[in-house]
Amino acid sequence: MSEHAAASRLCFPGLCFLLQVLLILLFAVWVRYSPEGSPGPCPPPLNCSRRSQDPNFLQPRFRDVHVQVLLSFGLLVAFLSRCGPGSAAIIILITAFSIQWAILIQGMLYFSLDGKISVGAQSLVRADFCTAAVLISTGALLGRVNPVQMLLLALLEVTLCTLNEFILLSLMGVSDTGGSLTVHTFGAYFGLMVSRLLYQPHKDKRKREEQQDKGHQTGAFAVVGTIYLWIFWPSSISTTTVHHNAENWAVLNSYFSLVASTVSTFILSPLLYEESTPRLVQIQDATLAAMAVMGMAGEMLLTPFGALIAGFLVGLISSLGFRFFMPVLHSKLKIQDTCGVHNTHGLPGVLGALLGTLLTLLATADTFGYRLELVFPLVAQGSRTITDQALLQLGALPLTLLLATLGGCITGALLKINVLRCCPAALYKENPGLREVPEEGSDPSASGKEELGSSTLV
Question: What is this structure's pTM?
Answer without folding.
Answer: 0.83
